[in-house]
Amino acid sequence: MKILMVLTSHDKLGDTGNKTGFWLEEFAAPYYVFKDAGAEITIASPKGGQPPLDPSSNTPDAQTDATERFKADDAAQAALADTKVLADIQVDGFDAIFYPGGHGPLWDLAEDADSRRLIEGFAAKDLPVGAVCHAPGVFRHTKGADGKPLVDGKRVTGFTNTEEEAVGLTDVVPFLVEEMLKANGGQYEKGEDWGVFVLVDGKLVTGQNPASSEEAAKKLLSLV
After folding, report:
1. DSSP helix/strand/coil, 45
2. Less crowded by CB within 10 Å, the N or C end of the chain?
3. Average of per-residue pLDDT across 58-86
4. What is the mean pLDDT of the chain?
């Protein structure tokens, strides 16, 4: 079983002067769900190499069992520091693709042609595609075989408008995940803010927020 994890290479939080990137829990929890199931994991990003970590996800109150395990795992840290260049990745040979969030993907992966190519390629082969929190933003331009938005008519979730408002970034992000999914025809649903909420529609798995990352990974794994 081979799983591709795709992370952002973007580290600027709009014009705020602050840093962003990927959210540690949203990488670490799925990584260990996959690893503990015996999967071979390949990590890729648009620029390759070490992806930027959102500093807000590295504060003491944002730590979980999975993030603590990661920080003690030299092999996992080495793998993260040496991500493959996304443009060099092909669908063939992989069984599923998973996107951790953080605000970074809204700027680069949502617009990235190689990311779009891979998502559409996995979907065309009826292979599982998963994304959590802000990462469903990667479906902004993806199309299905029918030429319609990939999420059109599908039950989907992602970071809510109210969660974005709570972190004070509604006017900073290039678009709101909830609004984009709705505009693309997605049947958007949500649970309680900051609670675990995951949807599966066919081979598409989406999670609402950081708390949903482990469950989203488990759901993806069940489809492989």
Report:
1. strand
2. N
3. 96
4. 97
